[in-house]
Amino acid sequence: MDKPWIRETLLYERLRNNKVRCGICERRCMINEGKTGFCKTRKNINGKLYTLVYGDISSISANPIEKKPLFHFWPGSLALTVGTWSCNFTCLWCQNFSISKVPPNPEKANYISPEKFVEMVGKYRCQGTSISFNEPTLLFEWGLDVFRLARERGFYNTFVTNGYMTVDALKMLIDAGLDALNVDIKGCKDEVLRFCGAN
Length: 199
Description:
This protein is α/β, with parallel strands linked by helices.
């Protein structure tokens, strides 16, 4: 692939007939060749699963860590916060609908490499990173690379998530340098099933 934002994903299973099963969120989408999963950010290309949004950044801003909200983790600090496109939930009340309801466009990606992003963390006098705005596991592979680099530079790493990631994904994030996460509870089981499209 000549586009750096399209990369083979790290957590998936190859199945018969060139199908794949994604292992990043609990949907565990089974994806036919040439198709994308529910979140529209991962595509089966010739029997391999690729992310279409590695470093494709829809939004970026330096935010107080309390906005995450994490109140007793690095109080008073700033986290350079990013998001990408789409989501693995369908919440009707999403405050970031302008990015969470828009599928990625691999032809018009706003690519920021992990190295460039970690440089920006220092440049903007932030003390850490945060992947937020929409579901951060959509930037899973990029997040792993960012977290490793950020940790080497002494920055903390955070996620604001709907919590629907698999245990395998969470373990990989922790191993890479995830320091804290906020699980944005959407509601009780029935409400999550009805309004968020979770199963």
